[in-house]
Design a protein that fits this description.
This protein has 10 helices and 17 strands. The chain is α+β, with helices and mostly antiparallel strands. The strands form 5 sheets. A 5-stranded antiparallel β-sheet has the order 6-7-12-10-11. A 4-stranded mixed β-sheet has the order 1-2-5-3, with no helix packed on it.
């Protein structure tokens, strides 16, 4: 166990912003997350790979536990057991190696298994809740261990009941997934199909699907940047919002590819699981935001407008202010409520 005091958390997040941890504990291979959390000074914040959080410049009181190690075991009948600190993409690679289908479209998503379950991550038509069966959780207030099934998690669109205020005391220790030995769905996402056509490969094997998805994510700027890069992001910052019938036309007016109403509704189903859940990128464009738009050291990605970037030296407060401005403007102009996908930790 590596323990430090008053350590900057910026380097532990993909946005490279945020204040200090009063106490920082980095788990080492083989150590027990349960034991360390139970004995840590309160409050306790468990941080995995930091790819979907914005930490306040004021820092975090108590103890921040960095949880980036964990095992992944392939069992019988398509069962996979994984510790919460295990790397999500390693889980996907192992599933593919064992010819297990059902999560391959989430290839390349950065972060840990615990965060993937808590946020019900989704991509290109697959979501965690499709294959999730059970999780073991630690109640940090009582020290008790409990097991939750799908109903306990109340999975929704990129959400779970773990994200509610009353359940933030729970920490995921390990999870179990049930995958299949044959395909569970077809690839319908337009950008991925375009990549498949350009590469000249069919999405009919696990290997080809992973290759397509990884290339699609690379083109979308959705893979973690290499060391030394100066543009930092937490991926798509906003969830796809719900809209009503009266708002469809205002979105269509600003749709760059001039698609029809029927095409938009079909895209909504593919991207968000509902005709009423429109792409947040379309909404930002309709509200007048531009790709590559900048506010000092904060920028919207030049190609993928949903990615809010720290282009070098932005503070967490500056990123937060831009996000709040986007939310306010979209509400004022379109009467659409945008919800951040990225979690805010600490006092803003």
């Amino acid at each position: 166990m590596k323990l430090q005091h008053n350590v900057s958390l910026a380097g532990y997040t993909s946005l490279h912003a945020g204040g200090q941890a009063e106490i920082l504990i980095e788990l080492e291979r083989g150590e027990s997350l349960e034991k360390i959390v139970k004995n840590a000074e309160r409050p306790v914040w468990v941080l995995g790979y930091g790819t979907n959080v914005l930490i306040s410049d004021k820092g975090l009181p108590g103890t921040v536990v960095i949880n980036r190690f964990g095992g992944i075991d392939i069992g019988k009948d398509g069962l996979i057991r994984a510790d919460s600190g295990a790397d999500w993409d390693e889980l996907i690679r192992k599933a593919i190696d064992h010819n297990l289908w059902g999560l391959e479209f989430t290839s390349g998503i950065p972060g840990g298994v615990g965060a993937a379950v808590a946020g019900n991550i989704a991509a290109y038509g697959h979501k965690v809740s499709d294959s999730f069966t059970e999780a073991t959780l630690l109640d940090t207030e009582t020290g008790k261990i409990t097991k939750w099934g799908p109903d306990d998690f109340g999975f929704g669109y990129r959400s779970s009941s773990l994200q509610t205020a009353e359940n933030r005391r729970f920490v995921v220790l390990e999870t179990i997934f049930k995958l299949n030995h044959s395909p569970t769905s077809e690839l319908e996402y337009g950008s991925a199909l375009k990549v498949a056509a350009e590469l000249g490969i069919k999405p009919d094997t696990l290997g080809s699907r992973r290759r397509i998805i990884m290339e699609a994510r690379r083109r979308a700027g959705s893979l973690l940047l290499a060391p030394g890069e100066s543009h930092f992001t937490a991926g798509s910052f906003f969830k796809n919002p719900m809209i009503d019938e009266s708002q469809i036309q205002s979105i269509l007016k600003h749709e760059e590819s001039a698609i029809s109403r029927e095409q938009l509704l079909r895209q909504n189903i593919i991207h968000g699981g509902s005709q009423a859940r429109v792409s947040a990128a379309h909404v930002l464009l309709a509200a007048g935001f531009k790709r590559g738009q900048t506010w000092g050291q904060v920028r919207l990605h030049p190609d993928h407008i949903l990615k809010v970037e720290n282009i070098g030296a932005a503070t967490a407060a500056q990123i937060y202010d831009v996000v709040m401005d986007i939310i306010f403007t979209v509400k004022q102009k379109l009467d659409v409520a945008l919800e951040p996908e990225v979690r805010f930790l600490g006092e803003f």
